[in-house]
Amino acid sequence: MTAITLTNNADLTALNTLALPARAAHLARITEAAQLPALIADPRWHDTPRFVLGGGSNLVLCSDFDGLMLQMAIGGRELAGEDGDAWYVRAGAGENWHDFVGWTLAQGWPGLENLSLIPGTVGAAPIQNIGAYGLEVAERFHSLEACDMRSGETVRFERSACRFGYRDSVFKQEGWHREGRFVISAVTFRLPKCWQALTRYADIPAELDARGIATPDARQIADAIIAIRQRKLPDPALIPNAGSFFHNPVVDAASAERLAAANPTLPRYAQPDGRVKLAAGWLIEQAGWKGKDLGPVGMFEKQALVLVNRGYACGADVLALAEAVQADVRQQFGVELRPEPVFL
Ligand code: EPU
Asked: How far apart are CA 257 and CA 276, in angstroms?
């Protein structure tokens, strides 16, 4: 086992995509699964709070972290198995998500293309069940391996054990992610051989039309989605942000009817359970926040759901804007917006 690299009083500004300035008392860079049980066997860390950091793309650092932060950098990707129906592809938790998607496509294993250009790591993907353009990772998930930080044992989670929902999983439901209970070391995806293009989502047909593509392959869908995302969403390397800042709220059918009667252009998406998902970006835009700043932060001018750091913001600035947006949407529509990122 390679020794763990440990940094004390570590600067986290470059490790979170909102570029918020904060420090961790201790930062351990985890490059191998075997380092995790070694870490909990070390008495130095027995009473130290823990937090697991992936790509830092879904995180609001409100203050310094007086504990041990685990920076997940376990690499590796491989074809773990194959049967008549599917390829089973396994990747280390620290692999960059978008690079991993590109690699699967280059190998000739389609299925993840709709999730192109999502920031973050492979290990973080199942925690919040990342989704975009008509696909959630749950639909391609096979299993994951995690270290139970109470016992040091490796535990395997199958799909049903993950209890996936819209931007949700058992890791969030049980608070395990927040307390660093199970640390994911690798994820295996099931990519069906009977691949079907998923091109129904609003912007995709127009983008493929503009490219003159009638029957796209997976790489062409990935390229179309990358172009759509680049047009709408700010590149965190240039304009720091954490993607969608709020969940799209899901309300009961009667509330959705009421809102739609008063707001005929309100986008609504029927859910399998009879409830209705609303577009948070639309609500925020109607509440007057699209392209509007509060101090050094603002709601992005091309996608009102994305909170951006316009320069030198701190966690308190982000909280102030999030609360102002929530208050205005609550007052105008009676709808509660729930933040998507983890606040630390
Ligand atoms: N809309 C507005 N104004 C805006 C933004 C959106 O009116 O400023 C309207 C759009 O016109 C459209 C609807 O809201 O009718 C939905 O917009 P869009 O297709 O851009 O998607 P979204 O619901 O805002 C979700 C995900 C994104 C994902 C896209 C595409 C959530 C919280 N967000 O956004 O995920 O990329 O769909 O599938 O579910 C992320 O989670 O970080 C993320 C970027």
From this structure: 9
* Substitution candidate for ligand 1 out of 199, 268, 282 with most atoms within 8 A of CB: 282
Enter the tokens of residue 112.
């993840």
Are the CB atoms for 17 and 242 separated by under 8 Å? yes
Average pLDDT, the chain: 97
Task: Tell me which residue has its CA closest to atom 24 in ligand 1.
Answer: 281
Give average pLDDT by consecutive 10-residue segment, the chain, 344 residues: 95 98 98 95 92 96 97 98 98 98 98 97 97 97 97 97 97 94 98 96 93 97 98 96 97 96 94 95 98 98 98 97 98 97 95
CA of 236 to the centre of ligand 1 (A): 17
Q: Which atom of ligand 1 is nearest to the CA of 303?
A: 8
Query: Sign of the CA dihedral 132, 135, 140, 146?
Result: positive
- Tell which residue, 228, 244, 225, has the closest CA to residue 236: 244
User: Taking the model in full, what pTM does it have?
Assistant: 0.96
Ligand 1 proximity of 168 Cβ (cutoff 6 Å): no
In ligand 1, the atom with minimum distance to the C-alpha of 134 is 38
Q: Is 340 in the pocket of ligand 1 (CB under 6 A)?
A: yes
